[in-house]
Design a protein that fits this description.
By secondary structure, the protein is of the alpha+beta class. The protein is about 40% helix and about 10% strand. It is built from 20 helices and 15 strands.
Length: about 550
């Protein structure tokens, strides 16, 4: 059998990938990958050990500048990047969560995927490499998607051929510095979808893995498919992959008044909720994060973090380990950017379209609050090192996102009742009659049911303010009131559900939402949809490989 050797050069990765210790090494430090087992072992490193959430959270619209920390001082080495992001600067801080670290971390993972694919080809693609091939294709697609969605213009079919994408690397590097072209956004996403669609049929249930939640399998790949295609506005594809995971509600109960008469919306349609006997409701009961029960009853934020990141939680579909300070960054005690009491009152304590209360616990003191989600561990940098590196376990794909992606797809296909049915499925797992006492933490299918009328009434002022809707969501008056209201409900739910997980930034970019930040001195600045800084700046070091930086011609640096 031909000896297969791995070469990982600096090039655009600027990072060396380490393989598992047991892989054979020849005297010149090249690694031999000459069996399916070694390929599978190599793929452990095909997942970016960086967090996209950490680098975009402080760019979102639910963050306050406290001016100081609640306890001690802000560690500059850890959190300067948060300040740069908050001020719309191109992050040059070279921390674990810098733009450069994310860029190099993703391309390092891609290098591993490419080596695995080349090694599979060298082995003659035996049957035992089918699953590793699927994983390698999926990880390559995922890492490129992470890069393209942040460092390139938002995908739009009508303009995708006009803007530069990112280098799509499909072969292991063979020189210390390779030269790359950015191609176009259209080219980038064509290759992402090609890898995804080729890899998906090769996915299994994950039972072959010791830790299945840390690898792509059939479920997590489908979840990734819903994220990929919702961004590309391929709504039929979103439904295809979402429906493979979550049953579509088919049984409904008509709401009645005190006399038992059917309740109707103003448009004459019946007010209905998903039946208690519907399999879809049973599914979300068993496969969503149990906020109203387990998490609300947690003894503290450390226990809740443990629950949220656990691989035993059915809602978590893919978990990655990132070299990141995001777990500390979500704590207000050590960071000046986070949730204030005002932010809490606008989110988990705010009125909502269902007229219930959010069963999402938050912690803090005075004006500093946080919603704990990520567990941090520290690892010794090397056996003889005195310093330790911060790692976080991060659920990057979970079932709640799949459902809300499906609701948005239904909406955009003008299937309003199906979108509302999914919103009610979601509400059944997050909204309760009351947070306290514990006996009030239950979902009432009649009182908390989301209906046409509730949507139209709750969002009336925003719906009727055409300037607000058009300017904030870049939509036209062609949308009817119900469609506008459902979109607002979906985005509200997503903003709260995925707080500090980075997905709010994806929504901001996808729906062209302006973001206003206010410094502690009161000065404000708004990042508008046409501002070049909506696209993250490619690190300067990438220019070594001939990669052009993103333009900064249209920026508004003024703070008023």
């Amino acid at each position: 059998m031909k000896r297969i050797k791995t070469y990982v050069y600096i090039g655009i990765t600027s990072l060396c990938c380490s393989c598992s210790d047991f892989l054979d090494k020849v005297p010149d430090e090249r690694t031999q990958i000459d069996s399916p087992d070694k390929i599978s072992a190599l793929l452990v490193n095909a997942y970016p050990k960086v967090s996209y959430a950490a680098i975009v959270n402080s760019r979102c619209d639910n963050i306050t500048d406290f001016g100081s920390t609640y306890y001690g001082s802000q560690p500059s080495s850890l959190f300067n990047f948060m300040g740069e992001n908050f001020l719309w600067k191109d992050v040059i801080e070279n921390s674990n969560d810098s733009f450069e670290s994310f860029w190099t971390g993703c391309y390092a993972a891609i290098a591993v995927s490419n080596q695995a694919l080349e090694s599979i080809e060298e082995l003659g693609e035996p049957a035992t490499t089918i699953t590793p091939k699927g994983e390698a294709l999926m990880t390559r697609a995922f890492s490129h998607f992470c890069l393209a969605s942040l460092f390139a213009q938002q995908y739009d079919e009508s303009t995708a051929s006009l803007y530069p994408g990112i280098p799509y690397v499909e072969k292991p590097e063979t020189k210390p510095v390779e030269r790359y072209d950015r191609e176009t956004v259209a080219d980038t996403y064509r290759k992402i979808t090609q890898d995804f669609e080729e890899g998906y049929p090769l996915m299994t249930d994950g039972s072959i893995y010791t830790a299945p939640k840390y690898h792509f399998n059939k479920k997590s790949a489908a979840a990734f498919g819903t994220r990929l295609y919702i961004l590309m506005k391929k709504y039929d594809k979103v439904l295809e992959y979402a429906n493979s995971l979550i049953p579509v509600p088919a049984q409904f109960e008509t709401l009645t008044d005190d006399d038992g008469e059917p309740l109707k919306n103003q448009d004459g349609t019946l007010q209905q909720n998903v039946s208690k006997n519907d399999p879809a409701l049973s599914f979300v009961n068993n496969n969503f994060h149990p906020f109203a029960t387990t998490y609300m009853n947690a003894s503290g934020y450390i226990e809740m973090r443990s629950y949220f990141c656990s691989s035993s939680t059915n809602a978590n579909l893919l978990i990655t380990e990132a070299l990141s300070s995001i777990a500390w960054g979500e704590l207000p005690f050590y960071s000046r950017y986070g949730l204030s009491s005002t932010d809490i009152s606008k989110t988990v304590n705010a009125d909502n379209v269902a007229n219930g209360m959010w069963a999402i616990p938050y912690y803090g003191t005075s004006n500093f609050y946080f919603i704990p989600k990520f567990t941090q561990i520290t690892k010794q940098e090397s056996l003889d090192a005195s310093n330790f590196l911060p790692y976080a376990n991060i659920p990057v794909l979970r079932m709640e996102e799949v459902l809300l992606n499906r609701a948005e797809a239904y909406l955009m296909l003008d299937q309003y009742d199906k979108a509302i049915a999914d919103l009610n499925l979601y509400a059944s797992q997050r909204l309760v009659m009351g947070r306290s006492p514990a006996s009030n933490r239950y979902y009432d299918s009649k009182e908390l049911c989301i209906t046409h009328d509730k949507i139209l009434n709750f969002y009336r002022s925003k719906i009727k303010n055409n300037d607000y809707f058009i300017n904030k969501y870049n939509q036209t008056g062609a949308w009817n009131d119900l469609k506008k209201g459902i979109l607002l409900a979906i985005l509200d739910f997503r903003a709260i559900e995925f707080h500090n997980e980075g997905l709010r930034w994806y929504d901001i970019v996808r729906w062209n939402i302006p973001v206003t930040h206010t410094q502690v001195n009161g000065s404000k600045s708004t990042l508008m949809p046409d501002d070049d800084r909506r696209v993250l700046q490619i690190p300067e070091m990438a220019t070594i490989s001939g990669i052009k930086l993103n333009p900064r011609d249209n920026v508004n640096n003024s703070w008023e």
